[in-house]
Design goal:
five-stranded antiparallel beta sheet; Neuraminidase; five-stranded mixed beta sheet; mainly beta
Length: 496
Amino acid sequence: MELRMGEFGGQYRSLGTRSWLKLMRQGACVFVASFASFANAEVGSLLTVLDGMGDGTWERVNANRFSDTWPAPADRSAPGSGYTNPRAVIQAWSGFAWDSNRGDLILWGGGHANYSGNEVYRWRSRDLSWERASMPSKMVEETFIGSNTVPVIVNSPVVSQRVYDYTVPSSAHAYDNNIYLPIADRFLTLGGATAHTGGRFTLRQPDGVVRPTGPYFWDPAKANGDKVGGQAGSANRPEVEAGNMWENRDNQVFRTLSVVSGGTALAEENGNDVVYFIGRPAGGTDAWLYRYEVDDVLRPELDTVSQVGRYFGGPSAIGAGAYDPVSKLFVAMGSEGTPFVAWDLDNASPSNNSFGITPQKVGQFDFGAPGRLPYGIDFDPRLGKFIVWAGGGSVWALDAPDSGTVSGDWSLSLLTDGALSNPADVPAPGFGSGIWGKWKYVSDLRAFVALEANEAGDVWVYRPQGWVNPVPEPSVLMLSFGGLMTLAAFLCRRRG
């Protein structure tokens, strides 16, 4: 008996009975594992909420307030500095990451002239509640000379503060530079405008000179709201235990880049986590596009950073970024007159030019001024569109040309008109300093998650058009796959 399968690498392969059964056995075991992961999904509570919603509607889902989890005043960083209110973690040019392995929203931020604390927070979909995931590090005074971007410690009258422990990052305006790496199982922050200096992450060298550094990993498996994120003795009270949660990857490329007002997007390539991000070389204002690949979570020296796009006239990308892995288009927010900027990563190289996009509106609606108050953007692979949110209830869809390239006809349509909703049923409009990274597509939900309200920490889910529950109904599974489950169990037991 011989069975012919599809084409692999241009050649047809013939499979004998034993090979065919082996293939079936492997596939059946994958199916069992996939079904088990659905059954154990931490996002089950959110899926139940989404199941009861209508397309194009919102639902607030946090069961407690963000402020319920803040550290006591005595535990906060830089007491007496005026930068001690954790509300700025959400308020100040910030973004979150979505931990797809645990169904958690990871929040870290503050920074510059807003908040010194570098503690981490999580909102957990398993119980819909906020929790603190680490304690903040203490700050110490140092004397600097030079600009805000590259401070060097000398005997100078310019005094500022930094984290006591260089193994952890100073708090920063995170913009859209916080992202979760599911393969490495790490939260990554590229940084932004750090506390007090407004510059990059810094590291004191053995000779006493301070230079730029970063980025930083944070390990969710070590999360503990009663431990400081760094080493022993680095908390504001000596009795607080060390959590050793952070790791500085100290990549050389990041010593020359500013990621202020930056955006990121995740991809999986070569079996590794890949982050596309916006950076500004040598402290300039022109936005270039970079690719950061993590080859081995235990070996930071293998991390690679390469330039895949350059600024080429017109608006400079600012704020949130999004990536379509099929068309290989990276899209970021732009300016008021040209609201979007894109790169075609089929042409990834240092000479790959940015492309300003002024889409054709489909219908009559107001899109506002994204350059003044950066909007959030992310890609919905089911709709095949870039979905935009600016606060409030309105949501827009940016549709790329059919060619899958940056040149051609882009269109913008209104998916949900917030003006038609009861204000209590949608997020508040005109959020603070902008959305930046507070709007994410979550593949496990096939929906979007948004964050607003500086003290309440309101977490919202948005159900897009054509939503289908990613977990099939049990009755459908039983009818459709009952036979396959039996076969799967039998074949898995015979494996080996």
